[in-house]
Amino acid sequence: MIRRLSQHIGEGGVEMKMICTKCKQEAKKVVLDSYEHERGIKLKDVEAYECPKCHEFIFTEKQMEEIEKRTEAIKVHNFSFERKITVSGRSLVINIPEDITRHMKLVKGMRARLTPIDDKELLIEIK
After folding, report:
1. Higher-confidence residue: 3 or 25?
2. pTM of whole model > 0.85?
3. Considering its fold, how many domains does the chain have in total?
4. What are phi and psi of 2, to 5 degrees?
5. Taking burial as the number of CB atoms within 10 A of a residue's CB, which of 33, 40, 48, 97 is the most buried?
6. Which of 8-17, 24-33, 78-87, 116-125 bottoms out in mean pLDDT, i.e. has the lowest?
7. Dihedral sign of CA atoms 15, 21, 24, 27 in order
8. Measured between alpha carbons, how far is 63 from 83 in angstroms, rounded to an integer?
9. What does the alpha-carbon distance between residue 79 and residue 23 come to, in Å, rounded to a whole number?
10. Read out DSSP for 73-107?
11. Has residue 81 been placed in a domain?
């Protein structure tokens, strides 16, 4: 899906134009807020090229290497647990398993930011 149309040396080095093989349109460089290369592994701030006509994303070899490297780094630490949502007073509670607590070095008093991604996903960031 990646084709090099032209190359010329400019002030910043080699400039390549990325052409969508489907539409023959020049793709524009973009940064994707979120990209899921492998199911369940979402990457933030991923560089790509987007076709202005069909909106397909095109990646250079270097971009794909970076995506694969970042995906593999996440897979090393990727494990999950299913927990029942319980109640404490008037709030819903999800207990954090000891394996995650140990792995992330969590201790009582640490702060967490909860961000709803959609109606089925919740991002938890430890502060």
Report:
1. 25
2. no
3. 2
4. -105, 130
5. 48
6. 8-17
7. negative
8. 36
9. 40
10. HHHHT--------EEETTEEE-PPPHHHHHHHT--
11. no
Of residues 80 and 123, the one with the higher pLDDT is: 123
Q: How far apart are alpha carbons 88 and 40 in whole angstroms? A: 30
> Can you tell me which residue has the tokens 């509670």?
93
Shortest CA distance to 16 belongs to which of 7, 3, 26?
7
CATH for 62:
3.10.20.860
Within-domain flag for 14: yes
18 burial (CB, 10 Å; 0-12 / 13-18 / 19+) is buried
Contact predicate 25/51, CB 8 Å = yes
Considering the domain architecture, whether residues 61 and 90 belong to the same structural domain is answered as no
